[in-house]
Amino acid sequence: EFQTEVNRLMDIIINSLYTDKQVFLRELVSNAADALEKARFHSVQDDSYLGDTKDLEVKIEYDADGKTISITDTGIGMSKADLINNLGTVAKSGTT
Known about the structure:
The protein is α+β, with helices and mostly antiparallel strands. The chain is 49% helix and 12% strand. The chain has helices at residues 2-16, 21-45, 80-86, and strands at 58-63, 68-73. The protein starts with a helix and ends in a 10-residue tail after the last helix.
């Protein structure tokens, strides 16, 4: 149920705020970088925070057959509360 709401919201955001697909892609990569910074911040305070994940990275993969781009990162995602509070907020970093 929540995933469906997020997918519908993302469709609205993509089609209204980000008419330029390059800008939208750049925003997703920027968000992934923010997630890495958040993880790095926590790892400085707690050496064991990252566990087995020592390399903070953003991966961008393209599936030509499916015509999709996947962006994944090893950073910290947002909780449901974070999503509710931050979706629709343009240019707000989660690390501040």
